[in-house]
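request received
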Amino acid sequence: MRPALRLLAEQRGEVPALLLAGAHHPLLHSKAVVQPHRGDRLTLAAPDWDGQERFSEIHLLATPSREETLAYLGLARRALAPGGQLYMSVENALGADGWRKRLQPLSALSKHKCRLLQLSAEHLPNQGDPLELRPPNAQADFVSCPGLFSWDRLDPGSQFLTQHLPKSLPGCGADLGCGPGLLGRQLLTRGCQRLDLIDVDQRAVQASLQNCGGDPRVRALWLDLVSERPPGGYAWVTLNPPFHGSGRENRALGVAMLGRAVESLKPSGQLWLVANQHLPYPQVLASMPVTVIEVHVGRGYKVMRCQKNA
Ligand SMILES: C[S@@+](CC[C@H](N)C(=O)[O-])C[C@H]1O[C@@H](n2cnc3c(N)ncnc32)[C@H](O)[C@@H]1O
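response:
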């Protein structure tokens, strides 16, 4: 459990509130939630915020992205009832002291290597919406939002992958952990019959659909691939595994995604994996029912083409 969630629950447990970017804690009493991350959303029983109701108390867990957290603060301002208060909990490692200096809260409790900032509407930005998709800059021909991986450009690792992909990728394939779908868009040019774009973040799934221009071959799915299975039976899968969760390095997450990717291939299906060169995926692959066929190294990345055993 994130220490910021623990601190929030210890201090504000039992008080009915709107919960932003949070997860389940037995002490918290959430009346409504905003949480696009499916893994955390599935832990919460309260309904999604309807955009209308106002709350005298709001709880926010700061996210690793400063811009995304600012967008949540803007949303909180709109959702606060007159005289209401926002409690934002943030780990020191996510810049708690910087937030304290920037927001000048009414109080700032320090515990569990976190801070709990007490804020009223006057402390909050008067705009921002963490669920809004928009072009990240004037030149961009795609939509995205802060908080998504590599939200404003195609990740250089995925770009390196596209240089090694074959011109033709026939059959049904998937990009597991699709982000805003910029890799997915390139995959569509390679002649597939169907493309599943799957991510744990609902905004990534919605952005992927838009960025693929409503192509009927695309099926965008909101799934937590650690706990949920994709449709599977794929002729090929691309994977740029995540190695961060909640702002901290989390290699187990990438390994779990790799397991899902292999499992979801049909026999002799191809896995195209790209990862930072130093990450130990070759050793992990050695314990899976695949054979590494091709390896390309460059720009700090490693691309591996693996074939699932028949
Ligand atoms: C390194 S990014 C790759 C994004 C995209 N494929 C690209 O190449 O630009 C990893 C993606 O995995 C997603 N992800 C992380 N944990 C996940 C999970 N449990 N289930 C599904 N997707 C997950 C993240 O939201 C992120 O978009």
